[in-house]
Amino acid sequence: MIVLIAGPGKPPRSTQGLGLPYLAAVLEEAGVKVKIFDLYPPSEDTDNPDVLDQRLADEIAQEQPALVGVTIHTPFYVERVRLAKYLRKRLPDTLLVAGGHHPSAEPADLLQCSEYDVCVIGEGEETLLEIAEFVEKGKKQRAADWLGNIRGVVYKQGSRIVQNPTRPPVLDLDTLPFPSHHLLGLENYAPNSNLGIKSQGILTYRGCPMRCAFCLNPQGQRVRRRSPPRVADEMMQVVERFGVRGFNFYDNLFGLNRKHATAVCEEILVRRLDVEWDCWTAGSLVDAELAEKMKKAGCVRVGFGAESGDDEVLERSHRALTASQHQEGIKILKAMGLKVDAFFMIGLPGESEQSVRRTVEFAKSCTADEVFLSIHRPYPGTAVWRNPKAYGVKIVRGPDFQAYLETENLSRAAIWEQARWAGEELKRCGIKSDFLRCDRYAWE
Ligand code: B12
Ligand code: SF4
Questions:
Q1: Which structural domain, as residue segments, surrounds residue 123?
Q2: Are 120 and 29 contained in the same domain?
Q3: 10 Å Cβ neighbour count for 270?
């Protein structure tokens, strides 16, 4: 038995990642028994995450799994390290494997500072399967003896950290089974707030050719596309098996390959799938023809990563898209009657009072239905994190990968001040707007 953990969150939650359902599908296909814990076991009496983690560890210990795999995102570093401590106490011989964005960026630190035995770098399907084949054969003892043969892992060998050669990403995504959604317990999930109905994540491709300096992009730059019929088959299966007709396309940029995105929409239309979905895009990747197909195929909302209204700020982050392309893109989507939520970050390299003003002017005039602002948080593994000087910024690091960024023109306090002003200005002008992800740390 293998247990996989993401989040976890307290029910009800509305959004599930695809990482663990994909990993579980590959394991299940190979005959391995898998459980996913994406939500905490019901606990009416407490919201204390420390207690919830202990109860989760108790419940997992009853399964006596040979391996526990945990997804870690940087903002939850402390919580996942704590979870590993509880798991280790109850399961001294179980292999603890970490995967996802944070372990891919900082594997050595994680192994040194926690109970995790192994970090899987990048896409985990093939790597986890190979590890599982060993542990299922009862070889979890002396793992360091066989881990040396597995590509894409970093692991502890005594006090040494060993980094194996990297593993190329899965080239033919059509060879992967459909994600094991049945392991998520969909009855415990709430309707998705963007769609108003229950929904599932879905991918039509992996990878991103862009090099945004603030992004980790562990899927790599090589874009790999699924065949449109296979995407539609997966949607049909979700509708038929789970009665869920809402979908969230997690593609980094819907329309990146217009022909492929169009073919996906056409496949949904040909099969007359009664589905509603949302997706993410930016710039003018979606033209009027594709927008019309999207609308007909059930798209109701588009999350739009504009990031900044200032071309110099966009260029400094190698965003490779201009403010006028973003304007054009939003105009096209709106003209087709799609709901557009535009997302901006304040405090990117090159940010100044003037550039924040440009962003606010952009947000006021772009006609998006709702505007979301956040203060940029630098993450390990990104180009900005690795080489702040090259971007003209200073990264102030606290404990546990908590960090903030200052630009040549704006201190931390000034960035907050600008963000506050931007929010008030948008409200004053009647623009529906909200703040997201603005981390304040105890040590600041
Ligand atoms: C859907 C989503 C969510 C969902 C589901 C989260 C989840 N459990 O995956 C919700 C809404 C809950 C969510 C929440 C958050 N998210 Co989110 N989310 C996403 C999104 C849009 C898609 C994730 C996805 O399904 N990808 C597709 C799958 C196939 O890829 P994957 O998840 O990377 O998984 C593969 C590998 O990473 C690896 N892998 C992953 N986990 C594991 C575990 C093991 C054991 C192994 C071996 C391998 C492995 O194998 C998988 C299959 O190939 C991504 C953006 C993106 N493009 O990835 C952001 C993203 C992952 N989220 C992010 C963040 C910051 C968050 C939050 C911290 C936000 C916040 N401040 O609250 C929270 C953290 C939640 C938590 N408790 O840990 C960041 C992560 C940045 C970082 N460096 O850590 C991303 C990259 C967005 C961004 N660019 O800012 N998120
Ligand atoms: S932010 Fe989006 S467009 Fe930029 S590299 Fe990351 S995934 Fe690609």
A1: 2-163
A2: yes
A3: 12
For the chain, what is the domain count?
Answer: 2
Average pLDDT of the residues in 178-194: 90
pLDDT in tens, 144-155: 788 999 999 999
> Domain boundary residue among 118, 146, 163?
163
pLDDT per position as a tens digit, 127-146: 999 999 999 877 666 787 88
What is 177-229 written as a DSSP string? PPP-GGGG-GGGBPPPTTTSS-EEEE-SEE------TT---TT-SS-EE--HH
- 444: in domain: no
As a whole number of angstroms, the distance between CA 92 and CA 63 comes to 14
Please identify, by atom number, the ligand 2 atom nearest to the C-alpha of residue 252.
7
Alpha helices (H) in 351-432, listed in sequence order? 353-365, 383-386, 412-428
Distance from residue 360's CA to the centre of ligand 2 (Å):
22
Ligand nearest to the CA of 105: 1
* Single-letter amino acid code for the residue at 63: E
Token couple for 165: 């050669």
50-56: long-range contacts (C-beta < 8 A, 24 or more apart)?
A: 50/82, 52/8, 52/10, 53/79, 53/82, 53/83, 53/86, 54/86, 56/5, 56/8, 56/83, 56/86
Which of the ligands is closest to the CA of residue 220? 2
Q: Which residue CA neighbors atom 84 of ligand 1 most closely? A: 73
Kindly state whether residues 198 and 159 are assigned to the same domain.
no
Q: d(Cα 147, Cα 166) in Å, to the nearest integer?
A: 13
